[in-house]
Amino acid sequence: xxxxxxxxxxxxxxxxxxxxxxxxxxxxxxxxxxxxxxxxxxxxxxxxxxxxxxxxxxxxxxxxxxxxxxxxxxxxxxxxxxxxxxxxxxxxxxxxxxxxxxxxxxxxxxxxxxxxxxxxxxxxxxxxxxxxxxxxxxxxxxxxxxxxxxxxxxxxxxxxxxxxxxxxxxxxxxxxxxxxxxxxxxxxxxxxxxxxxxxxxxxxxxxxxxxxxxxxxxxxxxxxxxxxxxxxxxxxxxxxxxxxxxxxxxxxxxxxxxxxxxxxxxxxxxxxxxxxxxxxxxxxxxxxxxxxxxxxxxxxxxxxxxxxxxxxxxxxxxxxxxxxxxxxxxxxxxxxxxxxxxxxxxxxxxxxxxxxxxxxxxxxxxxxxxxxxxxxxxxxxxxxxxxxxxxxxxxxxxxxxxxxxxxxxxxxxxxxxxxxxxxxxxxxxxxxxxxxxxxxxxxxxxxxxxxxxxxxxxxxxxxxxxxxxxxxxxxxxxxxxxxxxxxxxxxxxxxxxxxxxxxxxxxxxxxxxxxxxxxxxxxxxxxxxxxxxxxxxxxxxxxxxxxxxxxxxxxx
Length: 556
Fold this sequence. Notes:
By secondary structure, this protein is α+β, with helices and mostly antiparallel strands. Helix content is 25%, strand content 28%.
């Protein structure tokens, strides 16, 4: 009845367009014949609810003319390609559908044929394309082709022009990866890389102060992301530790690109910007036994294991407990892995410590907390004979080699009057997370994977009486692991970060004494970088270099 009423109205409107139609067709509109028929050509009963009637019907008959019915036909809502087309680099695509699954569409990557000819050439299928050399200089596009079982409508097809395929000039990134060599399956290759989060590359600090030499098209993430994917792929790590990875990049790039090969998880910082640490673990090499994420501010505030240290710094630094600690967003990402080939257990940590140059005292506390949690996991997983698991700690520590935090890691202790504690009197919160606030959100922040451990209001921290203070501005710290080793100790690098007015080592891969480093990915020379002004540049997608080491177990 509703369909009949609608058809009658449409006919009346058409008839009103001409005087003759209005005079001659008055009776026609009042007697429109509409019926629904099912697949067996039986008429659907009048009076049946509309949803049920349409579900049963396969055709509609209006005035003797039969029309096929398709209820909620599958359609493409959006077809996206992330990144520019660059030879040798990956592109990822996402299709969003309505009334069907994405698997109902075949994604076809096409390039134009040679000049003067018509048509296109298919060069790939699926949501990932590694752009081939043969596509250089040609226009790349993506088409979503519906499955033959889908009713074809104007909305069941989609196409997206990606652009002309570019090529990165050859240079030092190629030569250093080649010199490092392919992965040896008998060793454990560890890679760490701060990939420069999208929002931080858009700030005034980035474009005018840190990377003024970098052309905007090169700093654009559409250019950098394919190069990041290529770098991770070429290094082919067994354990990959990334920092400044946005949730968007994890979900729409790394997971589709590497999800079959690696166990991947993203642990977000507690900041306004949806970025954090991403850990990739090769499935064929490791079994994941446990995963733990910690927010520094919650761990240090609530754990009784650090209460003595908290009480002393609360007394020595009056604004720390309420003014600084609640604003700390640093996350510690930890995984307990069993090496399938040897059966040995490893505790792997990935982190990105607080960045401010006048916050060496805070990074000391962050390292203290990391070491404490690693040791707790080691004790939990020690063997029946008392052997402790191995340790790998990697990431952007924002610490130069001579600083107290690195000394605590490598030498095993830091005194309470160490010079780095003096920054506690120089550092004040002036919204030190300003880079987060300035940064543009690239995707809505999902629920964090980091558990909430906010302090109970009844849990009052009593500042330590002055007569019980240790000497100096800080607290004495010892490394519960003894001391760690730098995987680059036998082949030190000049820098891992190289920007305007600064270069130095900020990124590390540290290991316990039961592991040894058999080779490392080396840095380029300053002469290699000077023509570009620094990092990032047309050859490299981040302000940090990737670092990597091939590790093996010591026989003893």
